[in-house]
UniProtKB/TrEMBL annotation:
Protein name (database record): ATP synthase subunit a
Originating species: Ideonella dechloratans
Start and end residues of each stretch annotated as Disordered: 215-238
Family: Belongs to the ATPase A chain family.
PROSITE patterns for the chain: ATPASE_A
Function: Key component of the proton channel; it plays a direct role in the translocation of protons across the membrane.
Amino acid sequence: MDEGFSLHLAGLTLSETLCLSVVVTLGLAAAAWFWGPRGGRPPAVALELAWQMMHDAVAEVVAPVHVDRVLPFIGSLWLFIAVSNLLGLVPGLSSPTRDLSVTAALAVIVFFAVHLYGLRAAGWRSYLRHYIQPSPILAPFHIISEITRTLALAIRLFGNMMSLEMAALLVLLVAGLLVPVPLLLLHVIEALVQAYIFGMLALIYVGSALEVSLPEGQPPGPPSPSSPTSSSSAPESP
């Protein structure tokens, strides 16, 4: 399979995956500054809608007190993976996320972020204690679960994006340019779906780590209308 272009700089060889990953990162950082408070430019309606959708998705999983803390990380994951996936639509370029090294790096970032959020919210004693609950015998199984889900996170995104690009290549070789529009639409939808799935899995892992800091019995999401607060305000029956 074609490995794409490479750049030679100061005796180092920079692969296409590395170059595109850096370009995506710098582009998102520039866009955040351009439409952020320092840029002084009002965001477009589409950006406000995307931010609101990400905010609502995070608020459905984590407690309200943690939403503003978790949203920048999960939102950055969603945007980076979505843009990286869509780069495969550009002629001559390939998606950085079809490289296992990129998806593995993203999975490792999620792995450390999960524990950092948990340690910061609950403290190291309470957070580490939940690995031996309800019995210390389960501690090895908890550790194995942490490792296997990280591996699955990396392989899932890599496999889906690799198979998507190979399927697109095979269809183009067989049908030529007769079906470009449906193929492009399929690529766009699949790229966005894979970004959403990766971000949601990371969000669920972070939410499970933050649950350690919640009082026992308190749900992680927003309070329901039938919460004790709302029911206490109702008039008592005679």
